[in-house]
Amino acid sequence: MPPKAKNCLVILFLLAAATTAPGADATDKIFRARAETELARAQKLFQAETNAATAAPLARASFDCADLATNGTQRAAFAQAGIAACHQWLTREPKSAPAHYYLAMNLGKLAEAEAPSLAAYRLVHEVEREFKTAAELDVRYDFAGPARTLGELYFQAPGWPLSVGSRHKAREWFERAAALAPDYPENQLNLAEAHLKWRNRDEAEKTLQKIEAVWPAARTNFTGAARERDWLDWNARRAAARGEFQKLFKAAP
User: Fold this and answer.
1) What is the DSSP letter of 72?
2) Which parts of the chain register pLDDT below 70?
């Protein structure tokens, strides 16, 4: 890989909680503390009895901590803990969609920590492979999580020959996620943001209207402390998408 390609490599990898929630440092510290507490709890359970039931919380908590890490060293350490848990999980359940899903998520955070580098470039292909496997096994898992995150990967990654980015694939997987779990805000937001970036006026307007339609029920259905960070992100992105539509097309969506 030539130096220019290395310098151009950008890995912006997002998940139903993968986008860094906007807000003050104090708020981030609260979320970080919660995540680290959950990780410590999950590690104890996993050490006491290693099985799928204990591996899943550890893999998820490792990803959350990696996502909230303040530097690459921390992010890599948390991600590697999640990767190790998923590998043990897959030894017992090789066809577990959640195991492949969380493996991909933690690999994505490790790639983010190591970018830009040849190692990060290679990891992106592992991320793609694991998400595809998860999609084949259970595409509906985590509100169509495998489809959603594949769309995010293809949308954010640089295109060929630098990486796996693809507008066609991004749209395909975003639309699939939105069709499979239309009431999950992340799926509609991803699709709306993609259409805005691609200047697809009619599709963007339709998706933004869908967001408005699902929002009231989503506020009721997706609640609790675990969703607080999601809602900070979703509310900000919803407002930004509406503002971007007005800016681009000089009209309200």
Assistant:
1) H
2) 1-24
Q: Which residues of 159-173 are buried (b: 16+ CB within 10 A; e: fewer)?
A: eeebbbbbeebbbeb
- Maximum C-alpha span of the chain: 59
- The answer to whether 87 and 103 are in contact (CB under 8 A) is yes
Cα 188 to Cα 120, 191, 197, distances in angstroms = 29, 5, 14
pLDDT the model gives residue 18: 39
C-alpha distances in Å from residue 163, one per residue of 38, 66, 67, 98, 124: 34, 22, 21, 25, 8
CB 99 within 8 A of CB 93: yes
Q: Are 111 and 145 in contact (CB under 8 A)?
A: no
CATH fold of 3-145 reads: 1.25.40
CA pair distance 177, 193, nearest whole angstrom: 14
Quick one: DSSP state of residue 157?
S
Confirm if 9 and 120 have CB atoms less than 8 A apart. Answer: yes
Give the 3-state secondary structure of residue 53. helix
Cα 215 to its chain centre, rounded Å, is 20
- Do the beta carbons of residue 165 and residue 157 sit within 8 Å? yes
**49-55, long-range: CB within 8 Å, 24+ apart, which pairs?**
50/88, 51/92, 52/89, 52/92, 52/93, 52/96, 52/99, 55/85, 55/86, 55/88, 55/89, 55/99
Question: Per residue in 152-165, pLDDT tens?
Answer: 999 998 888 778 88
pTM: 0.87
Q: Residue 22 has what pLDDT?
A: 44
194 touches 206 (CB < 8 A): no
